[in-house]
Design a protein that fits this description.
This protein has eight helices and eight strands. It is α+β, with helices and mostly antiparallel strands. It has a single domain (about 1-140), classed as Nucleotide cyclase, GGDEF domain (Alpha-Beta Plaits, 2-Layer Sandwich), CATH 3.30.70.1230. It has helices at about 1-5, 25-35, 35-55, 75, 80-95, 100-105, 135-150, 160-165; strands at about 10-25, 60-65, 65-75, 110-125, 130-135, 155-160, 170-180, 190-195.
Length: about 200
């Protein structure tokens, strides 16, 4: 609707929560399943987790290979911590479907996610193929945070910038991973591992 209405014909700045959610062990699984079955595996994964995104008021921005990028407008992602609830709701949905995935593919999807909050430039881009694109440091940082999940061996990492905005809750526990210099950034950022309390 935003594309049809021309809302982003001229770029605008919006504060958004960004989640990069990435499947684990993709190369190994793709090798074992072959291209077509691996495509079906990814497609089934995206299909099964979409209700959690919608229920938590998120917007699916892009699919990039085995990765889903989700965004929340500030008022939808932060007040009830929907952006964090979304991750754990996805875990629950996949847990319910694990027997189906095992039966169909021999693998249960596992994944990691990085969350960040900040200013995003949103605007139409392209000519023959036009789409609404998100740009800016917030996008780059969220992607780097996702990458740190593998380094720190944590499934869900959030920035201190986001954590400071979230309401106090007993549903989740946050563990500081310390201040880190992410690739491409000049300033350090503190990351927190989030687990269900």
């Amino acid at each position: 609707m935003s594309y049809i209405s021309g809302k982003y014909h001229h770029p605008v700045s919006e504060y958004r929560v960004i989640m990069f959610l990435d499947l684990n062990d993709s190369t190994t699984i793709a090798e074992k399943l072959g291209a077509q079955r691996y495509h079906n595996f990814i497609n089934d994964f995206f299909f099964e987790i979409t209700p959690a995104v919608v229920a938590n008021k998120g917007e699916i921005y892009q699919y990039v290979g085995d990765e889903m990028i989700i965004s929340w407008r500030e008022k939808r992602g932060i007040p009830q911590a929907n952006c964090v609830h979304c991750y754990f709701d996805i875990l629950e949905l996949i847990n319910r479907k694990k027997e189906k995935f095992l039966s169909d593919y021999g693998y249960v999807p596992s994944f990691k996610a990085g969350l960040h909050f900040g200013d995003v430039t949103v605007g139409e881009i392209g000519d023959v193929k036009r789409e609404i694109a998100f740009h800016g440091d917030t996008m780059n940082t969220a992607a780097r945070i996702r990458s740190e999940c593998s380094v720190l061996k944590r499934n869900l990492l959030v920035s201190d910038v986001l954590l400071q905005q979230l309401p106090a809750t007993r549903n989740f526990a946050a563990e500081s991973m310390g201040r880190l210099r992410l690739k491409g950034r000049e300033a350090d950022i503190e990351l927190f591992s989030i687990t269900a309390a």
